[in-house]
Amino acid sequence: MAQDYKQTLNLPKDDFTIPMRANLPEQEPKWQQHWNQMDLYRLMQEKAAPKGAFVLHDGPPYSNGDIHMGHALNKVLKDVIIRFRRLQGYRSPYVPGWDNHGMPIENAVSQQFIQQGKTADRVALREACRAYAKRFVDIQREQFRQLGCVGDWDRPYLTMEYGFEACIVRVFGELVQKGYIYRDMRAVLWCPTCETALAEAEVEYEEKTSDSIYLRFPLLEDSKGVLSGLQNPYIVIWTTTPWTIPANMAVAVHPDFNYQVVQVDSQNACYLLVDSLVEATMSAVGIEDYRVVKNFKGRELEGIQFKHPLFERASPVVLANYVLSDEGTGVVHTAPGHGAEDFATGKRYNLTILSPVDGKGVFTDEAGEFAGLKIMPEGNKRIIERLQEVGHLMKHETYQHNYPHCWRCDSPLMFRTTVQWFMSIDHDLHRERSLEAIDQVKWFPEESRNRITAMVRNRPDWCISRQRAWGVGIPAFFCENCEGALVTPESVEAVAAVIEREGSDVWYSKPASEILPPGTQCSHCGAGEFRKETDVLDVWFDSGSTHRAVLETRPELTWPSDLYFEGSDQHRGWFNSSLMIGIATKGASPFRSVVTHGFVLDGDGRKMSKSEGNTILPKDIMRASGADVLRLWTASVEYFEDVRYSDEILKYVVDAYRQIRNTMRFMLGNLYDFMPDVRVPYDQLPELDRWMLARLQEFLKTSLRAYDSYEFHRFYQAARQLCNVDLSAFYLDVLKDRLYASAPNDPARRAAQTVMFDMTSVICRLFAPFLVHTMEEVWTRLPMPDKPQSVHLADFPEPQPQWENEALLNLWSQRREARDIVNRKVEEAKNEKRIPNPQSACAKIAADPTYYDLLSPLGDDLPRLFGISQAELTPGAQSGLEVEVVPAEGVKCARCWLVLPDVGSSPAFPDLCGRCAKVIEAIS
RNA sequence: GGGCGCAUAGCUCAGUCGGUAGAGCGCACCCCUGAUAAGGGUGAGGUCAUUGGUUCGAAUCCAAUUGUGCCCA
After folding, report:
1. For A778, what's the count of Cα atoms within 13 Å in the CB-facing half-sphere?
2. How far is the CA of A603 from the C1' of B67 (A)?
3. Which nucleotides on chain B have any atom < 7 A from a protein Cβ?
4. How far, in Å, CA of A492 to CA of A497, rounded?
5. Which residue is nearest to nucleotide B30 (CA to C1')?
6. What is the pLDDT of residue A923?
7. Which of A522, A498, A524, A501 is CA-nearest to residue A511?
8. Residue A224 Cα to chain centre, angstroms
């Protein structure tokens, strides 16, 4: 009976391999618990590290909300890196961190207070922010752990920890000490209702109806005589914010535009404006009898002094590249106190920065006759009236446009110039030294270097102050007597010391006198009464200090780090801020290399956004498919660029996961009676097996190279090729007869097992950084005494030069071409119903001399190569192979299922082939 | 508007010095039922985003355009 013979075959055994169905969502938490119990992270750190330390410094995510796909991509790849470095023999500590201070949390917490109808003072607000941040640290930490990421999760770094906050203060102190810090004016968007500066993210652009006016500035002084001979020349400007006219300090023209003077006889006046807008402007102001009398390049006008239309002061012509030639008059009213571009121009021309408006949007005494008026609408109205009275208003109408509004109270915003703190980027050749440091850093991908170089080369000084509550207070004091600033090494250290003990809230809860050393005197006037600065530091200053607060304080870490690994937006963000602080305080870059990854887009390549409804959360993927599948996805994509994610894409990754898993499962199932003591030495392996090892060697080298260059997708592609094509479709398929039908201890079977063991062992360890749970399961099944208790404590496989064999690779790739030819013929025969299946086929092959030499050495194994029962090889073909597929003669062997002529040749076993009869005799 | 990228088969990726476009998956059809919610075979699939240029010859080099992403204004 056939059933009886099945027991005599060496079929793969389920008890010795992994289950076909992974059921990852259920299994993964068990593995994670297992690792927690053995304290895997500690064991990884304690393992001998012959190559020394490899420190990846974690960029802190913001502690707000669930983790999104960008976080998942980032953290998984970091985890892969610290794991493979560990496997390579490095000690690779991972201290995760969070960025806690900042506007989003402050705003969320403020909203909560508002909804509850409560008002909070600064200390109460900050306490609530701290609690909020902590809650999301816990939520995100749990999600990162579910992704399978290992690290010192019990001792992460938090930028709101007292020690960290003290470090930030000290870093600021060092910058002061070295002369990097200064105070200056800067235009900020300001909400007159909330009385606060707004960050760009808090600004909403909405339609607004504004007053639109054309007005003229009379000529005051033209020392170079550029406009000589013209009657009553005026320059014409257009603005939609009449209230900024009192702050006007200049009129700007574009150096390259053509400007024209038009004479209007009916008004006995000449008007200067850009050529392309003469017609539109004259039409807008209702002048018909004009004629062009003169042309100028914008740059020729520089320095001509016009007179402010309302005040007795000059408004000179300045040059600016942002002037447009398709709107207004091509002459820009410049109020350095009320606009960012105007401010920059004002600085360039050393104009007075006048901002005669207070925090409530009311004109101050500096606005002269307008003092006390709200800028809108009263101020606008009065100014327009006054312009009319003095005769310089040329037109007034209303105008619809997008205008910045406060996201909270919806008020129209204004630009207001305020005093801010800055870090100089050019002090002490800082910029040059930063650029040199960038040159020394390794950037992956190399294009990254262009981006960071351009950023650093062009970046302005760093405005490090924010008018917010939830942050580290700028540790400066102001003299109550003379308003002089006090920032000395002693005062900064006094602040740092108290923050280190009690947290940065003390800056708000304690008076200056309890923080400063007794007897502190103002260096300007000698007075002893001080008040504290109320601004906080930009959160980029916090995160830019992580290398000081973390790398320098944790004994397991090093300064500088070996690697920063973040999204490409961090060129402007964390890479930049870390480098600025690193160069300024340590004279060197805090990272030796930087890898950047792209953003996660949806299946159509569009950005994921909540409003579009195309977001997918990692926790949902983990729940449905498992973390290992999500991790495998990160291996499948070329992440230096933006990557795509969709359910469809994940489906393909799930398929890939199954195929890899099944390949491993099959090999393990066939190793149930294998142990190292039955290994077959390399030189006694059949040629096919040595070919397989040559392929393994090739794969191994490709994979290690891919890991080293962080091009994990190359490893993924190579692994899929190996598993699907070389193993599943070819080697393992060919091997089945040898494995199943041979005597268990047949050297040929032991040889196959030897190769499968090496194969499994190598693939398992190479995939371990990605498929952390699955490969741990494989590892437990690997028949190997004295192995490390976790694959994550093993070593990466090393290339085996003795496996290398170029000649075998060539030989077998040609033999597989022959296999392809035969396969096509078998398929043909199948389709023509000449044979039902390959097992009943015999291939009659005539070969040219080349093919004959290639195939004849295989002898009886030739049909195995073709996956059929019989093959007859003869020389004599003109070229290539001539193949005829015919039904195999003989009977199907009841044991090995090959159709062979010698079935029944052994009288004792009439339904067995000769080979199977012999095997049965031997084992019984 | 500016800076830095990207665009090759349905999907994920290769493509060396410029020389007739490749892989795996998926798909279709077939086989197997001793890897079985597996496994094998065969096959179809591309105007290399578009346009122009350089060249004997362009996926590849140059320019512009379109789409898309990050950063900035």
Report:
1. 28
2. 15
3. 3-6, 10-14, 23-26, 30-43, 68-73
4. 9
5. A831
6. 86
7. A498
8. 56
* CA–C1' gap, A869 and B21, in angstroms: 37
**C-alpha span between A131 and A115 (Å, rounded):** 18
How far apart CA A219 and CA A578 sit, in angstroms, is: 51
C-alpha to C-alpha distances, A22 to A5, A28, A723, A757, nearest whole angstrom = 31, 10, 18, 21
Looking across all nucleic acid strands, the nucleotide with the smallest C1' to CA distance from residue A568 is: B70
Residue A526 to residue A885: CA distance in whole angstroms = 107
CA dihedral A298, A301, A307, A308 (to 10 degrees): 30
CA→C1' distance for A821 and B27 (Å): 23
Supply A152's token pair: 């010192």
Using the CA of A836, give the nucleotide whose C1' is nearest. Answer: B31
Cβ atoms of residues A93 and A45 within 8 Å: yes
Residues 6+ apart with CB under 8 A from A614: A602, A606, A608
pLDDT band at A2 (very low <50, low <70, confident <90, very high): very low
CA at A663, C1' at B29: how many angstroms apart? 25
Distance A813 CA to B45 C1' (A): 25
Question: pLDDT per residue over A510-531, tens digit each?
Answer: 999 999 999 999 989 999 999 9
Q: How far apart are CA A569 and CA A186, in angstroms?
A: 25
Q: Which nucleotide is nearest to A721 (CA to C1')?
A: B24
pTM equals: 0.91
Report the distance separating Cα A794 and Cα A762, nearest Å.
Answer: 11
| Secondary structure tally for chain A: helices H, strands E | 30, 32
Residues A674 and A665: their CA atoms lie apart, in Å, by: 15
Distance, angstroms, CA A605 to C1' B49?
14
What is the spatial distance between Cα A106 and Cα A615, in angstroms, rounded to a whole number? Answer: 25
Cα–Cα separations (whole angstroms), residue A351 to A248, A316, A368, A785, A898: 10, 10, 19, 81, 96
Q: A416: part of which helix (H) or strand (E)? A: strand A414-423
Summarised one tens digit per residue, pLDDT across range A248-298 is 999 999 888 899 999 999 899 999 999 988 988 999 899 988 999 999 888
Which nucleotide is closest to the Cα of A649 by its C1'?
Answer: B11
Q: Give the closest residue to A851 by CA, choosing from A837, A838, A865, A840.
A: A865
Instruction: Report helix, strand or coil for A696.
Output: helix
Closest-approach nucleotide to residue A635, Cα vs C1'? B12
Distance CA A722, CA A732 (A): 11
CB atoms within 10 A of CB A88: 18
CB A803 within 8 A of CB A694: yes
Based on C-alpha coordinates, what's the Rg of chain A? 39
Task: Return the DSSP state at A47.
Answer: S
Q: How far apart are CA A106 and CA A539, in angstroms?
A: 12
Residue bearing tokens 């607060």: A549
Q: What is the dihedral of CA A916, A917, A922, A924, to 10 degrees?
A: 100
Q: Which residue places its CA closest to the C1' of nucleotide B24? A: A721
Spatial CA neighbour of A240 closest among A130, A133, A376, A108: A376
Question: CA A717, C1' B15: Å apart?
Answer: 14
Nearest nucleotide (C1') to alpha carbon of A825: B42
Element (H, E) at A181: strand A181-191
| Tokens of residue A4, six digits | 């009886």
* ipTM attached to this prediction: 0.97
Quick check: A401 pLDDT over 80?
A: no
C-alpha distance from residue A228 to each of A253, A269, A329 (Å): 19, 13, 22
**Under 8 Å CB-to-CB from A861, ≥6 apart: which residues?**
A688
Residues in chain A: 924
Residue A1: pLDDT over 70: no
Q: Taking 70 as the threshold, does the pLDDT of residue A686 lie above it? A: yes
